[in-house]
Amino acid sequence: MHSVRTNVSISRRSARSSVRILGVASASAALVLGVSSTALACNIKEFSAEATCDGSNGVITVTDKDASGTPATISVFLESNGADARQVGDAKPIKGTKEGATVSFSEDWAPNAVYRIRVTTDNGKVDADITPNLTTPSTACKSDESSSPSPSESATPSPSASESTPAESDSPTPSASDSSSTAPASTSSNAPSPAVGESNLAETGANSNTGLIAGIAAALVVAGGGAVWFGMRRRGAHSGN
User: Fold this and answer.
1) What sign does the CA torsion over 85, 89, 90, 92 have?
2) Sequence-ordered list of residues with C-beta below 8 angstroms from that of 128, at least 6 positions apart, any chain
3) Strands annotated E in the chain
4) CB 3.0-4.6 Å disulfide test: which of 8, 147, 149, 199 passes with 153?
5) Residue-level pLDDT at 197
């Protein structure tokens, strides 16, 4: 009987020890899971913002290094005297990665301007601003020099255009006036003289001897005919005697 009781008490102790071990293991597992879930949870500290230049255009870039990939929405506001002056574009969605996901806002920012960046996750775990607020660099984005004409290029066409314009406007004007003034003078002085003389000679025949010659010829024909007739008559009279 004594040995049986001893075995039962040992079994109970072993069972209690097992329960305690399982409890400690469960608590440890829960603690590990809690720590890991907390490490993977989205946090406002995983977001950052920077003002940069894309050529001559200003850009505000927000980076999300949330390894859990929790979807979020980013909104950017220009600050003036501690208040929102205006919103920059529309709010944009982002889904973070361990390496870092980015979203950009086009903004022609001025030097030393202040912007407030609001982060709101879809699950509501984060709804806060990135702190501190973003302050832009002290130097603005440079303009694209290739798009603006150089001083030599802008100066060269201006004089050439101004010089060529008067030259073209001055040369045709005198030539046109000279030709218009000389053309009528030559026509009025030379053309009418031969035209008038030819018309008078054609109409009157003052310089032509055709009529006189024709009259003399007619008289000679008549005289010749009369002489022939008179001679033939005398010859007939002589033959009759």
Assistant:
1) negative
2) 44, 118, 119
3) 47-54, 57-64, 71-80, 83-87, 92-95, 101-106, 114-121, 127-129, 134-135
4) 149
5) 47
